[in-house]
Amino acid sequence: MNTVVIYDSKFGNTEKIAEAIARGIGSVSDVHVISVSEAARELEALATRPDLLIVGGPTQNHGPSAGLRHFTDALPASLRGVPAACFDTRYRGPVLLMGSAATAAAKAVAKAGAAIVGTPESFFIVRRGQMPLQTLEPGEIERAESWGRATASEAPLADPVAS
Ligand SMILES: Cc1cc2nc3c(=O)[nH]c(=O)nc-3n(C[C@H](O)[C@H](O)[C@H](O)COP(=O)(O)O)c2cc1C
Q1: Would you say residue 37 lies in a domain?
Q2: Distance between the two ends of the chain, CA-based, in angstroms?
Q3: Residue 100 within a domain
Q4: Does residue 143 form part of some domain?
Q5: How far is the CA of 143 from the centre of ligand 1 (A)?
Q6: Number of domains comprising the chain
Q7: Residue-wise pLDDT tens digits, 35-79
Q8: CATH number at residue 121
């Protein structure tokens, strides 16, 4: 099994979550972690089509960051039809109030033909101090590792006919 984790991050927290998710996945699958800005080039360099896509980014203005939105709205052809799970980082609180990049990303990825696996997951930032210095709530790195492991363990294998 081969998984790609693709993320956007402005201040570094989502990057840490993406790396933690990949560590969790590493116990059940080969895994590559790629930022949205490198995605086109890095995906081309992969020898095989991924079996699973994990994609996430920061929630900004109640939705996905611009980088995440650009990536999911024009999902590379090599990822269309691949099972996918979405995550975000955001402040803790109801999705109706805070928004969720993962929820919007899941809709965009599904529109591009990917089969969504599980429900979008959020990892939380402490809303204290200046934004660039805000960090993840305690325990979120460990939760991301577990979520990655569980998501990869439960994902169906991609349809080999489609690859
Ligand atoms: C321009 C901007 C708008 C934001 N809007 C929201 C928002 O609507 N809801 C929310 O929960 N967090 C919001 N945040 C906080 C981000 O979700 C938080 O900074 C991000 O998850 C941190 O991830 P990063 O370190 O990878 O950038 C916003 C942050 C920025 C910079």
Answers
A1: yes
A2: 13
A3: yes
A4: yes
A5: 19
A6: 1
A7: 999 998 898 888 888 999 999 999 999 999 999 999 999 999 889
A8: 3.40.50.360
Q: Probe ligand 1: pick from 5, 7, 35, 60, max atoms within 8 Å of CB?
A: 60
Q: Which of 22, 30, 112, 27 is nearest to 69 (CA)?
A: 112
Phi/psi region, residue 93 (left: phi>0; alpha: psi -120 to 50; beta: rest), is left
**How many Cβ atoms sit within 10 Å of the Cβ of residue 90?**
21
Residues framing ligand 1 (Cβ under 6 A) = 9-14, 58-62, 89-91, 98-99, 125, 131, 134
Tell me which amino acid residue 30 is: D
Q: Is residue 162 part of a domain?
A: no
This model's pTM is above 0.70: yes
Q: Where are the alpha helices (DSSP H) in the chain?
A: 13-25, 39-45, 66-73, 95-98, 101-111, 140-154
Q: Which residues constitute the domain of residue 111?
A: 2-153
- Ligand 1 centroid vs 53 CA: distance in angstroms? 23
